[in-house]
Amino acid sequence: MATGGGGGGLGGGATGSAGNADHHKRNTFTSYVAPLPGDLRATADTNEWCLPSDLRDVHLGKPRLLQGEQIVASAPAYMYSPIDPMDSSGSVSGSGSSSSLPSDSHKEAIFGLLSVTNFKLAFVPLHSKRNPVATAAPLIDLYQENAYLGRNEITLNNIDHIYTIAELGRAASALQAARGIASHGISRRKKLEPFKQHNISGRIAALHIVCKNFRLLKFAFQQQDSKIFGSSDQGKLIASALVRFAYPMRHDLSFAYAHREPYYSTLGASGTSMYATKNDWARELIRCGATEWQVVSTASVPLLQNPLQAGKYTVPPHFVIPKSCSVDRFLDLSRAFCDSRAAFWVYSYGSNAALVRLAELQPAAQQDTKLENVMLELVRKCDAGRQLKLLQLTDRLPSIQDVLKAYQKLRRLCTPETPQKFMMQDDKYLSLLEKTNWLFYVSLCLRFASEAAATLRSGVSCVLQESNGRDLCCVVSSLAQLLLDPHFRTIDGFQSLVQKEWVALEHPFQRRLGHVYSAQPAGGNAELLESEQSPVFLLFLDCAWQLLQQFPDEFEFTQTYLTTLWDSCFMPIFDTFQFDTQAQRLKAVRDSQLVLRPVWDWGEQFSDKDKMFFSNPLYQRQKGDLGAQAAAAAHRRSLAVGSRAAHGTATGSTPSRNTMNPQLFSTASSVPQDRFLQPAHRIVDLQVWDQCYYRWLPILDIRGGGQPQVDLFHRLLLSNIAKVQRCLEFQNFDDLPDAYYEATGESRPNQQKDEKPVKEDEAEYVDGVERRRKTTAKAATPTNGLTSMSGNLQLSTLSSFFPFGNPIAGDAPHQLYDILSSSSELLMETSSFLDKSSIV
Amino acid sequence: MDSSAGLADKLPSKTVSSNSLDSKSESISLCSRHDVGENGVLRDTPFGYLDGEEDQDQKNDVTYVCPYRGPMFGALTITNYRLNFRSLPLRDQEPPMVVDVPLGVIARVEKIGGATSRGENSYGIEIFCKDMRNLRFAHKQQNHSRRTVFEKLQANAFPLSNNGRLFAFSHAAGNLVNGNGGWDGWAVYEPLAELRRLGVPNDMWRATKLNESYAICDSYPAVWAVPKAASDDFLKRVATFRSRCRLPVLSWMNPRTQATITRCSQPLVGVSGKRNSDDEAYLSFIMEANAQSDKLTIMDARPSANAIANKAKGGGYESEDAYRNVEIHFLDIHNIHVMRESLRKVKEACFPTTDDSKWQTAIDNTLWLKHIRCILAGAVRIVDKVETMSTSVVVHCSDGWDRTAQLTALSMLLLDHYYRTVRGFEVLIEKEWLSFGHKFQQRIGHGDNKHSDADRSPVFLQFIDSVWQVSQQFNNAFEFNEHFLITIVDHLYSCRFGTFLCNTEAERVTEDLKHRTTSLWTHINSSLDQYLNPLFPSFTQRAELVLRPIASVRSVRLWKGLYCRWNPGLCALQRGCQRTRELLSKQDQLFKLVNELRVKSNNRNTSMTTTRLASPMH
Predict the structure, then answer these.
(1) What is the band of A40 on the pLDDT scale with cuts at 50, 70, 90?
(2) At what angle do helices A370-382 and A327-334 cross, to 10 degrees?
(3) What pLDDT was estimated at residue A808?
(4) A721 to chain B: which residues are within 8 Å by CB?
(5) What value of ipTM does the predicted structure carry?
(6) Is residue B76 domain-shared with residue B225, that is, in the same domain?
(7) Which residue, among B174, B159, B42, has the nearest Cα to B104 in the 3D structure?
(8) pLDDT digits (tens, 9 = 90+) for A187-224
(9) A823 touches chain B (CB under 8 A)
(10) Does B223 reside within a domain?
């Protein structure tokens, strides 16, 4: 094994410390359960470390803590790359070759401090002075950075399985133990069960942590001298802390409740509709031209306000039902259906063909389908052509347990613990992939979504029926809308779609994503525990990703956006994906003063640079895309993109938020009818979502290749176009892009030398655009050709999982950072000057 | 290719249909102008005839049994170059279905059904093609149309088995009459010029014409680059110890580090473990020619078991004991027979239809992707030695003309960005494949009816597939696109051009292909636009990036654009590239506008003789 740079570009820094650490058996580090902030420093000062001298700065190893965050346990540990490249080149050599794995072990691990807090598992590398981290660290800048999490940190929420690897014997060092894992297979690998926290027996040499977002983390612990510390065992310490905190039994034990930091929304001007008010739904009805439907708010239904009665219904706060049906009658009917989910309208297309979600009848009522027929008849009356198609999903689509099994099998393929395992999987990879059934399920979802979309296109209403109407219904329903409506292919639209289909209509995120490990079942059966867990939402994101592959210029968002969305499911700080029902959410606010923080406020997690990678440079915005809800967004961006604001004339955009009388508006749908997508849905046409599933495997990272290069190229083109347009507008040709001089063969004006001081002064006062000019001016003066040369070199080392994946570890040259930062400024500039609609 | 001049030229390129013989697209456009003659019979120009192309047979009552659209009734034309079928559309608006196959693509023609066979469309011929498809035509039993079609196909598809000549010779004869407008593709590769590009001759290497008459090694080129330390006589002695006298000769040199890739065949070690001091000394010359390293790596492409088994036949491999400072690695690539079988299975899985429920397992079972993975992994290992360790590498397999060519050509492509341009790739094929004697005639079986010949094997196709894999991982590292690669594969079989005819350079000289046939490169370079990758003028263009593709089945994909292209349901979408072209042309348009403005204002400025040079429009 060699360094895979798994530790966020710190592989080089680990060389010395890992080697030295072996000499120091007498490790006097003690850890405290939930020490006060600053405690660790005291520990380090008074109780001297016997680790390499520069590791006395152990306080550097303390993770940055959020408001309300506390350290539960800390221990020095080695972090391993999830799987190491087999050659130094990072390629997989053919099996049976004479040179097997390189035997030098000293580069494989990073030494540091591993801490468990009530929010996250954090590993902070401790660097030896010989390899100052400064050489490699700045590279990280261009990769995605999360304001709440470092590169070597994961939220406890993200942890799915914890495996302990037993100690191999007195003689074995921690490093050997970790390597032994590879050679001895997984016989000593044991899964920690959520409710068996007292069952950790024996010494723990290493931990493998499998995350819900396909990441595999490997830590090894140094053996301890038992004469001094008795039975204390660092691995055990961490493991028991993890078992206790990573599997909360009640949701109010989640970090979200401890984190009291107030939230100041910057979403106000966003076009994302939260579907939290009656008006949001009414606007959607108007946008779709759905005149036969009405919004019901539980707050205004007397029956639901009656505490004796309300318990019988589990309806969301707002929902849309046929106009022809009174609320009371509807509620009466709904009692026959699972979770009270009787025929909720979600979307209309064309001349009033509606998309409706319906649960199945309660098991007790299933003998008598009369109520179901009555319900369907009500829906049919709303359809202009009095036509309706019932699409039963339960028998045709996988159950949530099937989805979970497929996901687990797929994840196993994406988290091999050893190179040997990787190669074994690789040898029959496609067969194994087929056996996961994941792509088969993706294919099914796309197929039924296409069928639903085709039904609506032909002017027939479509009713999606599923047992509780809250799982695969969400997938098919939201996919069908993605296929039909270009509005949902914008970022705001997509977010509104998720709010509508998943959040407002209550997909049980809390149970499906395993945020809470509810009551302990008898015997602690893990299967039972997981029966409620299922990454249905990931299935939807994967389907959306497949569409993105097939229609690369139809979506405003990128795959990076979708991947980030999956990661964000495990950020308890954001309430969006934390609850099963709206009632739960409101209760949490009322009873526990939970701070609600929508995940859509991306600025909370990411810098502008990272948000930039959410928007697709190939996307072509068209007139019709600015639906009712996008008007606000258009206004927000109108400064940057003038022409787009001009399009914001869609019906019912801004006027009168209070009076949503449909009579005031045009009754026709404002959804364009000519921009639907017809995706291929066979398995032959599908691909594995490599960015999301493989990004933690450095072995699969194509340095300088893959989609990011194409993506950046298009961003550069847009930036060039924007720059030249600006130059033309102001008739000032000082700041033409490099490509101009290359294309025209014109020599770059060389007066910059004289003006340089002036320019630098100028740069003091202005924003990123001008600062960029300064850097080019500086670099361009000596040798024009060389700048672009080194710029190319820079981008050629980007990860193919960019902005995920790992920056190059170790000996990255210094000058790379300069170019990286200037190119990122360039890209930011692009984002603000994208005038896509002006490009033919 | 000069980048600055190239950019402007490339911009107005056309949208490319990724999978068609260009002759086919030609014919389709001509078809649309075609009209039906007096008697409702097709007139005799259903496609654009090539130079030298002549009608051989025409039948107006043939049914093409399309595996996707069902039987179609229409007219079949056979020329000395192609088989062309055009359906008679039932309705006016319906475009006719056209099947256009160069006869060179045909591997086998068989009659199906006999005098007694019943049922519709059960009597006719079936044509098995080298390009992953089979065609089935049904004839009416009464009018004996089948016999002449069958005979004409046999005669024209397999001219070498019927005392005929390949179409390439007739085609060029026509070409000479018309003259060819562009430059000559035969001049693309100049051995000495290419060596000069690599920096040979230099202090350590020289070029020699020792083999000018192909007397030392009949399957090697006339010009070699060899270590200076080895004299001509010495080389002759080394040649005797190598299978078919294919001694180590330079393929590529890193101009900066002088680390080299040399290629050869296996040493004639035999069971007894013979040694040859000249061969041993020669390898040490190669090692010493590279001052950066005191080791030499031998990459034996074969699985080690095969290498050992070869000792029984007098071959073998270099023992690390006999050769000083040499390390040998086996790259585990299987032989031509294994590859042929693997591709046969790919055809089974892809044609005519795919079974979606078993698709992935079916592809897995072909092992094709695993073989591709091995080749990529081998090439990356060579790259790693040469680039990262600055160690010279000697590559060989058994004879050094199949797997060796795959490995050297692919690793050179990864190391040297020149080979990733259109021109450079042409040079690479001319050099590593054609001049070093990959036996195209035998491996493809041009004009030869021995369809089950054990010497046939898709070795070159596998190389093109590997290049495609690399181009999929590095989208912007290649000047050419997928269509370019598919065109090469199509004309590998078509026998329209002389490029892939014959087995060795010696044979090509004897046949005088340079004068009697046209080069494929002449054809390609005369309409470059459609073969260019719009992503190429991009970051990595001038960066001398060494590519290290990921050799894992997770990253290698089945090339549906090639293997599944006859299935109309599996056509890949190419929309992204279209948008790229739009953006590029928009950028270019703006650049031109600015340039004009600047030229104008500059002129004004010079006439006003202002002192200030900067920003004239301020």
Answers:
(1) very low
(2) 140
(3) 58
(4) 583, 586-587, 590
(5) 0.89
(6) no
(7) B159
(8) 477 888 776 655 666 778 889 999 999 999 999 887 65
(9) no
(10) yes
Say what the pLDDT of residue A143 is: 81
| Residue A609: per-residue pLDDT | 77
Tokens of A541: 């994101």
Nearest-by-Cβ selection for A91 from B4, B358, B550: B550
Last residue of a domain, one of B137, B157, B177: B157
The verdict on a CB contact (< 8 Å) between B553 and A429 is yes
Q: How far apart are CA A217 and CA A614, in angstroms?
A: 26
With bands split at pLDDT 50, 70 and 90, how would you rate the model's confidence at A108? Answer: low
Which of B138, B157, B176 terminates a domain? The answer is B157
What total number of domains does chain B contain? 3
Which residues of B form the catalytic set?
A: 397
Which of A551, A710, A727 minimises the CB distance to B594?
Answer: A727
Residue holding tokens 């999987």? A425
Asked if A589 reaches chain B (Cβ–Cβ under 8 Å), the answer is: no
**What is the token pair recorded at B485?**
């690669």
**B95 plus B238 within the same structural domain:** no
pLDDT above 90: residue A461: yes
Task: State the Cα–Cα distance between residues B553 and B558, nearest whole angstrom.
Answer: 10
Place of tokens 């058996």: A25
- Tell me whether residue B443 is in a domain: yes
B92 and B219 in a common domain = no
Out of A93, A704, A733, closest to residue B381 by CB: A93
Task: Please give the sequence-ordered ranges of beta strands (E in DSSP) within B348-439, or none if there are none.
Answer: 392-396
Contact partners, residue B90, CB within 8 Å, separation at least 6: none
pLDDT at A819 over 50: no
Same domain, B479 and B399: yes
pLDDT, tens digit (0-9, with 9 covering 90-100), for B68-89: 989 999 999 999 999 999 998 8
Residues B439, B519, single domain; the answer is yes
A596 touches chain B (CB under 8 A): no
Q: State the pLDDT at residue A501.
A: 96
Same-domain check for residues B198 and B340: yes
B165 located within any domain? no
The answer to whether residues B128 and B224 belong to one domain is: no
Which of the 8 DSSP states describes residue B552? S
Task: Decide if A712 touches B, using CB distance below 8 A.
Answer: yes
Tell me if B246 sits within 8 A of B400, measured CB to CB. Answer: yes
Q: Is A834 near chain B, with CB under 8 Å?
A: no
Percent of chain A with pLDDT over 90: 42
Kindly tell me the sign of the dihedral angle through the C-alpha atoms of B79, B82, B83, B85: negative
From CA B85, how far away is CA A427, in angstroms rounded?
A: 43
Per-residue model confidence (pLDDT) at position B604: 77
Out of A404-408, A567-571, A710-714, B341-345, pick the least confident: A710-714
Closest residue in A to B302 (Cα–Cα): A97
Q: Do B550 and A700 touch (CB under 8 A)?
A: yes
Distance CA(B348)–CA(B355), nearest Å, equals 11
CB atoms within 10 A of CB A137: 19
Residue of B nearest to A618 (CA): B579
Nearest to B552 among A700, A732, A745 (CB): A700
* A99 touches B at CB < 8 Å: yes
Residue B60: which domain range? Answer: 23-157
What mean pLDDT is predicted for residues B405-416?
Answer: 97
pTM across the whole model: 0.86
Same domain (yes/no): B426, B533:
yes
> For A679, which residue in chain B has the nearest alpha carbon?
B573
Q: pLDDT tens, A639-658?
A: 333 333 333 333 333 333 34
Which residues pair with residue B125 across a beta bridge? Answer: B111, B137
CB of A682 within 8 Å of any CB in chain B?
A: yes
Percent of chain B with pLDDT over 90: 70
pLDDT tens-digit series, residues A597-623: 999 999 999 988 788 889 888 887 764
- Cross-chain Cβ contact A751/B613 below 8 Å: yes
Task: Judge whether B15 lies within some domain.
Answer: no
